[in-house]
Every structure is written in C-alpha cells, then in structure tokens.
Amino acid sequence: MEDTAIDNFSVIGNNVKLIRSSIMDRTIIGENCIIENSIIGRHTEIRSTQASPTTIKDSIIADNVVIGEGCNIISTSIYPHKTIMPKSKFENEIIS
Q1: Under DSSP, is residue 89 helix (H, G, I), strand (E, B) or coil?
Q2: Which long-range contacts (C-beta less than 8 Å, at least 24 apart) are formed by 44-47?
Q3: Chain centre distance of CA 66
Q4: Please, are residues 19 and 37 in contact by the beta-carbon 8 Å criterion?
Q5: Do 27 and 4 touch, CB atoms closer than 8 A?
Q6: What pLDDT digit, counting tens, does each position of 2-41 carry?
Q7: Any bridge partners for residue 36, and if so which?
Q8: Which domains are assigned to the chain?
Q9: Which bin fits 57, alpha (ψ -120 to 50), beta or left (φ > 0)?
Q10: Neighbouring-strand partners of residue 74
C-alpha cells in the first residue's frame, strides 16, 4: 500500500496492491487485485483471484458497483449500481 486511504469497514484481500488511491467505506477487494491512481466508491465489490486478478488504473468506480474477476479497467469511469462481467476490458470509457 502506497499513498492510499482506506475508509471504515472495508475488506482487503491478500496480496492486493493499492497505489495512490482512495477506497471508500464497506468496499470488498479480492486477492491479488491491483488498484492504482483510482477512487473506489462505497459498497463496491471488486472480485479478483490469484488465477484471474483484476487491475484498475486511473479510474473512478462509483458506489454499489460489482466488478467481476479478471477485469482490466484503465482510465474509465463507472456509474453507480453497475455490474461488470468477469474478464471485461475497458479503456478510456464511461460506463453509465
């Protein structure tokens, strides 16, 4: 963890890399996830496993979002209450 703020009641899995990011309250982050230069909203679940890690860079993920394992999200904004399917790839997009 480097220059990252984690709010109350969040659950961070093993081997997670958090770099220059903000993690809001009640967020669940699965193991081996990489989050860099991003903001993760409240009540969000980021699924990630050792076999299928999720990477989020330079992105804003709103409240109540579920991101499936193995996703690669770069420079993307995801609006509230969205579900992102496993192994999805987004770059420079707005998911509304």
Answers
A1: strand
A2: 47/86
A3: 9
A4: yes
A5: no
A6: 999 999 999 999 999 999 999 999 999 999 999 999 999 9
A7: 19, 57
A8: 5-88 (2.160.10.10)
A9: beta
A10: 57, 91
Tell me the three state secondary structure of residue 50.
Answer: coil
What is the spatial distance between Cα 28 and Cα 74, in angstroms, rounded to a whole number?
19
| In contact, 18 and 2? CB cutoff 8 Å | yes
* Tokens, residue 94: 């707005």
Q: Which two tokens stand for residue 32?
A: 């081996």
Q: What is the pLDDT of residue 1?
A: 83
Length of the chain: 96
Rg, Å, the chain Cα set = 11
